[in-house]
Amino acid sequence: MAWLAVAAALCVLLAAGCGLETDQANKLLQQGNAHQQEAEAVMARLKVLPNDWQNIFGGPTVGPAQVANAQGLINARKADLDVLDAALKNWSQDTNAISKLNVEEKVKEYITLKAASIKQWQDYSQMYLAPLVKAYGGLLDTIALGRPLAEQQKAASDITNLVGESTQKLEECLNAEKAADNYFKANKLGQ
Known about the structure:
Elements: H1 2-16, H2 22-47, H3 49-57, H4 64-99, H5 105-144, H6 149-186
Helix pairs in contact: 1-2, 2-4, 3-4, 4-5, 5-6
């Protein structure tokens, strides 16, 4: 919800300048906000993948129904990755387009920070989320093929390692987002 307040305040800021390309900047901002909302919704689904997985395989036995449900889950998360990458790309394009417009320098600096944040999210998606979903697919393959328990445990261990590695990148993403928001507040943009 914080991004809504930031977006509304930025619209007010952009509307205040004379001779600035306010209308175009506001239009791009609205488009970017829509792409951000889309990305956040997809991230929320990806975030609960471990819980969804556990709900499927939480029982004492594994049968064809669990394997089919897990395959559906993995396919849905793969599709989510495509949607996320498209939303992040579109959000980035909208944000970068604002930086090329005639807007106040403080707004350009904010947009630069926002673009850096989006880049962090893009890297997180490609370098951490995609391999994580793929690793879950690999674990599913070992389960579906009835591979030895040691092989299944190795695949599960790989997932645990990926989660650990992705935690640091997630923190970097959140810090980049916070830096943009802090700049916005510190410079009293939108007031």
